[in-house]
Amino acid sequence: MNSEDSVVSDSSFYIAFLSPHEIDDPETLVEILKKYKFFIGRVVLDEISQKHGDIVDDIGFKGIVKILEKYDYSSLLSIIGNRVFEKGEYECMAIAYFLYRKSGLHSLILDDNPARKWINNNIPELSKFVRYSLRFLVNCCCSDGKLSEEKINDILNKVVLAIQMGKRPFNLTERNIYVVEQLLTEVNGCRN
Amino acid sequence: MSRANYKLVEDEREIKDAEYLILLILGKAGGRISILHLQKIFFTLWKFHPQVRRLVDFVPHLRGPYSSDLDDLIKNPTYVVDCWEYIPPKRGSEAERVKGGYLEITEKGEEIYRKIVDGLNEKAKEDEDALALISAVDLIVSLYTRLEWDELLLLLYTDENIKEYSEKSELSREIIKNSEKIVDRLIKKGIIPEEKRGSLMKRIKSARWIV
């Protein structure tokens, strides 16, 4: 792992892995967290803990990620972000900027399209680091070689299943199933 | 060193740091900034960074969060002298009155500003506090200075995370009355995505602490 492996994500990425009716695979989440340096602010940590406090404790989540508590990152973009974006989203943007300045940002995982558009307009330096959750996961396998094809295929298939059951992992709906199918094709054989 | 002397040295250091931070914000803003913008940017850094929090105090005031300590340092700097000029507001314009005048950087100020940036960037390689501060200044100064005075106040007054600082604001009703036009401008500038117009209007309507 090097200094450019720093990843920031809003809570939806973690929650999808921990939710029983979505991906429901805390072990794979732990595996991913250990292969990068995940940075997390107080707001996102609280959002995950409120939803899945027990599992968070069971998997030792707080010991695997780097919790940033010294500075109130959410306050930096609060006047714009309050009730316009999720609090965890604008906290992540500020943390990502800090890591970018530190020359260590690998990815900022954000699934909300208006939030992504906002970054393009207002913090263009971060644009090239912004990834959808699924793109990040596919890149874990195809670009970074940190997860096996089998693991990613398994995750993508669970995502399709969750959507078909009416859930919205990573903010995805029925309309997005074709994207997941395209990603399944991309993953198959990408390491050859 | 006696406790009294230590306190004196500490106080002097804090004043100096606050004045350097004013210069850092001013320089980053391109050498000219309204007092209103400077106060609000300083306030945001004050909320963000524990070391900035030690430098001055902020209280709820007529235009949202305000620091009289900061106002004093802006107009009568003790250590960072001749680095900026305070331009009082022109008479007759409401907008100019609200903005409270401007700071303009001097030649000496530009020189010292460049040294502060170089010094902080160097320090930031080892020191997390320095990195956090310079990153935060870079992030918010360019963002906040794109906002007109009424855009800045609308966003500030309706942010529920700092509502306790906006309850005494004298301009809040007027700003809220013009909110649709202000929101149009914010969308045009890309500060608020078009898809989020409804969320912002809802936020404005539910900001009961100012109406």
Task: Name the CATH class of chain A.
Answer: Alpha Beta
Number of helical elements of chain A:
10
The CATH level-2 architecture of chain A is identified as 3-Layer(aba) Sandwich
CA distance, first residue to last residue of chain B: 52 Å
Assembly type of the chains comes to heterodimer
Number of domains of chain A: 1
Low-confidence stretches of chain A: none
Question: What structural class do the secondary elements of chain A suggest?
Answer: alpha/beta
| Discrete helix count of chain B | 11
Q: What Rg of chain B, in angstroms, do the CA atoms define? A: 18 Å
Largest beta sheet: strand ordering of chain A:
3-2-1-4-5
Specify the overall morphology of chain B.
globular
Per-chain topology:
The complex is a heterodimer of chains A (192) and B (211).
Chain A: E1 6-9, H1 11-18, H2 26-35, E2 37-41, H3 42-58, H4 61-64, E3 66-68, H5 78-81, H6 87-101, E4 105-109, H7 113-122, E5 130-131, H8 133-142, H9 149-164, H10 177-187
Parallel strand pairs in A: 1-2, 1-4, 2-3, 4-5
Helix pairs in contact in A: 1-3, 8-10, 9-10
Chain B: H1 3-28, E1 32-34, H2 35-48, H3 50-53, E2 59-61, E3 64-66, H4 68-75, E4 84-87, H5 94-99, E5 102-105, H6 107-124, H7 128-144, H8 149-157, H9 172-177, H10 179-189, H11 197-205
Antiparallel strand pairs in B: 1-5, 2-3, 4-5
